[in-house]
Each structure stands twice: as structure tokens, then as C-alpha cells.
Amino acid sequence: MGNNSMHRASGLTIIELMVVIGIIAALAVIAVPTIIQTLPGRNLNSSATDLVSSFRRVRSLAIKNNSPVTIGPFDPTDAPQTYKVAGAFPPKKLDSGINFGYPGRSTRWKFKNTAGADAGDSVIFNAIGLAVDSSANQVTGYVYLQNSKGEGYRIGVQGLGANIIKDKCGVGCLKNDGTPGTLHCESDPTDADPKADCQ
Question: Average model confidence (pLDDT) for the chain?
Fold first, then answer.
């Protein structure tokens, strides 16, 4: 006696395959805009973190080699999203969609010496790790970064110990009187006191 029953082939039917494709498409519709929306913020944070690391590397290199090392913009005309470390590393490019500057700021790299005079757009770390200008006066100041959504960071050196800082613009901070405020990177900073930009 033969077996006349039909055996069902294993696998997916067209209907099952279409249901799976529909679920994947629905998830993509939900996920892709979220990923696209968060990308500028992620790139901004990544570029700011890289720049802070470069400042720290420059300071360490100056101390290690017992000689000054400079960090500053590479070429604002030909490479506006690039910065350089003199004689040590190849120029470094900011992440996609990130630029130097901040809305309302006329300068991208802003440093002043202890006398309050403009110290140019580069920072020199001397053999003991202090941030100085070309005349060996100690400097303090910031580099500004922004993304396409208008978010920003300021990265800088401040204080006698040449502390390297990274502040997110537009977020909470404490005013001079200790009350909560918002960090306004578009205001003209008093470089010696970052709380002055907290309004």
C-alpha cells in the first residue's frame, strides 16, 4: 500500500514572507528618522571629545619633550573644519556636519592673555604645560563647535593650571550668585570666568 498523503515542504509561504517584510519596513520607518535626528548631536559630541583629547595630547607632548607645542586652526580658507598640532600629528578633521564657530560668534578660536589682550587663534602649551601666547603670556579661552541643529560646545583652557574644559552650550549652569542659569556660548565671554556666560 502506497502513501498517497502529500508532504508539506518546509519553508516560508509568500504570505509569511510578506508579513516579515512588512514588520521590518515598519521598524525601519520608526528607527531611521530617530537615527537621522540624533546623528548631528552624536557627531558634535564626538568632535568635541576629540578636540579635548587633542588639547590634552598637546599639553602632554609639550611636557614630555620639554618644548612648546601649538594647536590651532589648520587653514580657515581651504580647510575650515580642520585643526592642526604643530609638528606632531597630521591635521585633524571634524566629524561630518560639524563646524568651528557658534551662531552669533564672530570668532571660532578665541584666546586672551592675562592682560586681557587678544592672544590669537592658536594655543601654545609650554614645557611645564601652561597655555601661553607667542610672547609667553598665559592665556585662557575657547574653541567653539556647532552642528547643523544649532547645538554647540565650547572647548577651552582656563585658570592658572591650564585646565582643559568642555562645556555644552545651551544647557544648565550656575550663575555667579549660585542660582541656575543657561550657558550662552553666543555671548562675548569673559574668558577668565566662564560663569559670566551663564545667564
Answer: 78
